[in-house]
Amino acid sequence: MNILEFKNSLSQINEVIITLPNGNSVPPHFHVTELGIVSKDYIDCGGTIRKEKVANFQLWNADDIEHRIKPQKIIDIIEIAEHSLGLENLDIEVEYQSDTIGKYGLEFTGGKFQLSPTLTDCLAKDKCGIPEKPKTVLNPSSCDSTSGCC
After folding, report:
1. Is 147 part of a structural domain of the chain?
2. How many structural domains compose the chain?
3. Does residue 149 lie within any of the structural domains?
4. pLDDT in tens, the chain (150 residues)
5. In terms of residue numbers, what domain contains 111?
6. For the whole model, what pTM was predicted?
7. How is 64-106 classified by DSSP, letter by letter?
């Protein structure tokens, strides 16, 4: 999800509900403690220089269990960041504290937000000698034995 999609989703709801990948909910009294632009310049294991930039939201739970952030308040925070930080329509990454700070993607389904797992990956499999996973054949009867898929 990117910033524009997030703002549009927020404008459709009256209450912000966020679910973790394990099905548990982020407590409803969470705070948005940070919104930033995170830039990462790096070199992968194959020697390719890469650049990434994401909008990073940090969620935090306090002891004030009566706190409830409204969708418009999050939109206001985003608009301040657009003007003061030059926040663009970037993909969103969410930081949330569990055993350690976890980084998640964000999806919107059925009027609720879902934190989605993020995964590490080798970006240079061809240079590291890691074979691509074989493609799944949906109709085995149409498989050509010379195609390498069977």
Report:
1. no
2. 1
3. no
4. 999 999 999 999 999 999 999 999 999 999 999 999 999 999 999 999 999 999 999 999 988 899 999 999 999 999 999 999 999 999 999 999 988 899 999 999 999 999 999 999 999 988 888 887 776 655 555 555 554 544
5. 3-142
6. 0.83
7. -TT----HHHHHHHHHHHHHHT---SPBEEEEEESSSEEEEEE
